[in-house]
Amino acid sequence: MRCAPSAAVAVAVAEALARRPDTSWVMLTSGGTEIVCAVRAEHDTDSETLLLDRLPRTSRVEAVSAHSVLHTFYGGAESPVAKLGPLDAAAAARLRPAPPNGPGRPIRLDDGDRELVAALADDGRSTYEQLAARTG
């Protein structure tokens, strides 16, 4: 979809699309004036109602181009665009990195760590050179 040259318009349309249960993913492109999305419609009439009837009538949507996916070569539960809901606790735990000092052990900061944390607290955008100079 191409929206009028106002990022706020495209963001509002993209957010509305993202809230729909049949939308797999949404992406803003072209400086925030175009929207690319994947919508899974259960029936042909559903997709036509959304893409060809309702969206072109949305205020400030200037153009809509719809394409059908004939075959998904990588999909199902493993698809990166599958909208399967939030991760359960076990799946989220598998994504967390292991603690650097082993599981269940508290992290102990040394004087160099404390100096680095203090430098970043003063200016979190410090360069590597600035941090190296301050921490030695």
Written description of the protein model:
- Helices cover 38% and strands 13% of the residues.
- The protein starts with a strand and ends with a helix.
- A hairpin with a 4-residue loop joins strand 2 and strand 3 (34-39).
- The chain has a two-stranded antiparallel sheet with strand order 1-4. The chain has a two-stranded antiparallel sheet with strand order 2-3.
- The radius of gyration is 23 Å and the shape is elongated.
- It has five helices and four strands; from the N terminus they run E-H-E-E-H-E-H-H-H.
- It is an alpha+beta fold and 136 residues long.
Write the layout of secondary structure elements.
Elements: E1 2-3, H1 7-19, E2 23-29, E3 34-39, H2 44-54, E4 61-63, H3 89-95, H4 111-122, H5 128-135
Antiparallel strand pairs: 1-4, 2-3
Short description:
Helix content is 38%, strand content 13%.
CA-CA gap between termini: 53 Å
- The SSE string, one letter per element, is EHEEHEHHH
Percentage beta strand: 5-15%
Shape: elongated
Q: How many helices in DSSP terms?
A: 5
Major sheet characteristics: 2 strands, antiparallel
- Portion of residues in helices? 25-40%
The parts where pLDDT drops under 50 for at least 5 residues are: none
Widest sheet: strand ordering: 1-4
Structural Rg: 23 Å
Structural class call reads alpha+beta
Q: Got a strand count?
A: 4
Average pLDDT level: 78
